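Team,

Forwarding the record for the chain on the shared tracking sheet. I've put the sequence and predicted structure together so nobody has to dig through attachments.
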Amino acid sequence: MERESKNKIRCNLKVEYLIFKKNLKVTEYKQILQLDIVRVLKNVCLFLLYLIWINIARAGWENSYSLYRFLFADENEQLRIPLDRIGISIFYLIVAGMFCLFSIQSIRVLILGSPHRYADLIRPHTRIVKLFCKIGSVIFLLGVYTGEINLNMYNQLIGRLVSLVLLYSLMNLIEKKFFNKIKKGVLNEIVREEFDLNTTIGEIKVKLSVFKSDSKWKQYIYRSPSSTVYKGYYNYELEEALSDTGAIYHGEEMVLKDKYGDYVIVYDDMSNYIL
């Protein structure tokens, strides 16, 4: 039984591999794959940037005495150790609290099967992380300014930070370039065609924007099922007839079928509107 299960898994993996290999020959699929790979690399850079930023913030929080020294221009050595201990305690409490909250939400997703993606779970917590990292970074800079922190001790960390910022910026530019290329390909496959609409008020000839009959990008795009060419048009019958054509309306948002599902292509053309 166990051997059969392993053979079935092996066969499924082989089928998936063959499908993937076949899809790689399709230009559109390859472009989407390239976009996703760049997005993954960008997210890795962002994750590493957060780790370095948290380290800098930690250095700031554990030198909280520098904030007191800057604000009051006083060198009370008796307050140095208590303030530094309070600062680093706040840092570790926030980190532990964030970890616990995320763990609880992750377990809830696994148990209850929530439709939320893990990216949606992380996003609210990143605001808190950014806030206490910003405060820690400010304290770090004040520590450097007041001489409480020796910047030379963090040269390697700052060097990594600068390198990752440059790498992240490069990944961001490449991502935009790949997406704009895909967007251009999608929009180039939209053409104007004439339709004869049979309604109770007679036959109406209109020109609408639709995907070409041999469109390759159409299958890689999600469209809203409630898309209508004329939103809020006064004639309901005409609105239904126009919707049946599958025409693309001005301002329609089309989502790319990639692993992230948040790349939106907006069709901007007022020519579909009859006034």
